[in-house]
Design goal:
The protein has 363 residues and is an alpha/beta fold. 47% of the residues lie in helices and 16% in strands. The termini are close together. Bound molecules: uridine-5'-diphosphate. Uridine-5'-diphosphate (UDP) binds next to helix 1, helix 15 and helix 16. The site of uridine-5'-diphosphate has 14 residues, from helix 1, helix 15 and helix 16.
Length: 363
């Protein structure tokens, strides 16, 4: 029996790995364990996902809220302790681009454990994004690189990454397709009193948008602009809430009658809101992909994206911080003149199957 560990620690990580245990159960020679680092600890960002998505972490490293350096160091040390206690796995998988990804990759390399990177090759080419070096390091250390879109393959080649590259599609879409029936049953629209196609859904949490008061003020201008056209549903990421409070901007925004605030939502509720929204405003990586899959217009409040396929063939547009052009896009959407988009190749709900089959052949 070959042992595989998935090292995951954040909301988007968990959403990318929900189908692994189900698929691996079909292979009698593979055993998979989920190691939860504890990087996200807020119950709205973790527990709700385990419950809804049926994920049970097998090992919990319980890292403490701390600086990225301390967290990365602690994850590496705790992974080392875990292997000393129960032995090394035959392979480690790290999904995505967060600090747990980097820590898992460095640990695997230093412990001579083969490494696979899920969602390899994505590049924003913006090194001020904390995720960019996590992606680069994980890709250079991995022997197996699982890619979601063509640009990933090209970037890995240009950087001379030495691992084997496999275009497998997008495991995030596997989750979405697998839970479609439960998503449909969510009562969130009734709870928030929003009508289908009559609201915009917003998620904003990237440091470039929320960490400086001047940038966060611009985000608020954008929200105010949207609220002139549509109701806005805004589930607030803990980082954004903290910054809104720190810069005393929260109260101003709260009194706007057309903006509905809520805590970060569970997966099923959030997906239901995407599915029936008029459009989504975001700076999230995963949400750009989910809207492209659903063919819902997505305006991304960023200068770049590591997921270019969502713009070239999907429904995503990088939005300049200029209210006039934002209004133009909203009007296009309102008048059904916004681009339609198509679903990228292999975003078909079978990516996890492809990954597991490859791992079964390799190990
Ligand atoms: N998401 C969610 N509830 C929310 C906001 C987002 O379930 O209130 C989901 C979203 O659909 C996507 C994932 O969280 O699947 C994206 O996570 P996040 O934006 O934190 O990370 P990123 O993708 O930017 O790395």
């Amino acid at each position: 029996m070959k042992k595989i560990w998935i090292v995951a620690g954040t909301r988007p990580n968990f959403i990318k790995i929900t189908q692994f245990k189900r698929v691996v159960a079909e292979y009698h020679s593979l055993d998979i364990k989920i190691v939860h680092t504890g990087q996200h600890f807020d119950k709205n960002m973790t527990d709700v996902f385990f419950k809804e998505l049926n994920i049970t972490p097998d090992y919990f490293l319980h890292i403490q809220p701390a600086s990225p350096v301390q967290q990365i160091a602690e994850i590496i040390i705790k992974l080392d302790k875990l292997t000393n206690e129960i032995g090394k796995p035959d392979l480690i998988i790290v999904p995505g681009d967060v600090n747990s990804t980097l820590a898992g990759a460095v640990f695997a390399n230093k412990s001579e454990i083969p490494l696979a990177h899920l969602e390899a090759g994505l590049r924003s080419f913006d090194t001020s994004m904390p995720e960019e070096y996590n992606r680069i390091v994980a890709d250079h250390l991995a022997q197996y690189l699982f890619v979601t879109e063509e640009s990933g393959k090209e970037n890995l080649m240009k950087e001379h990454c030495t691992g084997n590259v496999y275009m497998v599609g997008n495991t995030m879409i596997d989750t979405l397709k697998h839970f479609e029936e439960q998503i449909e049953k969510s009562q969130i629209s009734e709870k928030l009193k929003v009508e289908p196609e009559n609201y915009a859904l917003v998620t904003i949490h990237r440091p470039s948008n929320v960490d400086k008061a001047e940038n966060l003020k611009k985000v608020i201008e954008v929200l105010n602009c949207i609220s002139n056209f549509y109701k806005v549903v805004f589930p607030i990421h803990p980082r954004t809430e903290k910054k809104l409070k720190e810069f005393s901007l929260f109260e101003n925004l709260k009194i706007k009658h057309n903006i509905i605030f809520c805590e970060p939502l569970g997966y099923l509720d959030f997906q239901k809101l995407i599915k029936y929204s008029k459009f989504v405003l975001t700076d999230s990586g995963g949400v750009q992909e989910e809207t492209t899959y659903r063919q819902i217009p997505c305006l991304t409040l960023r200068k770049n994206t590591e997921r270019p396929v969502t713009c070239t063939i999907g429904t995503n547009t990088l939005l300049p911080f200029d209210i006039k052009s934002i209004e133009e896009y909203i009007l296009q959407i309102k008048n059904n003149q916004y681009k339609k988009g198509t679903i990228p190749p292999l975003w078909d709900g079978q990516a996890t199957e492809r990954v597991v089959k490859i791992l079964n052949d390799i190990l």
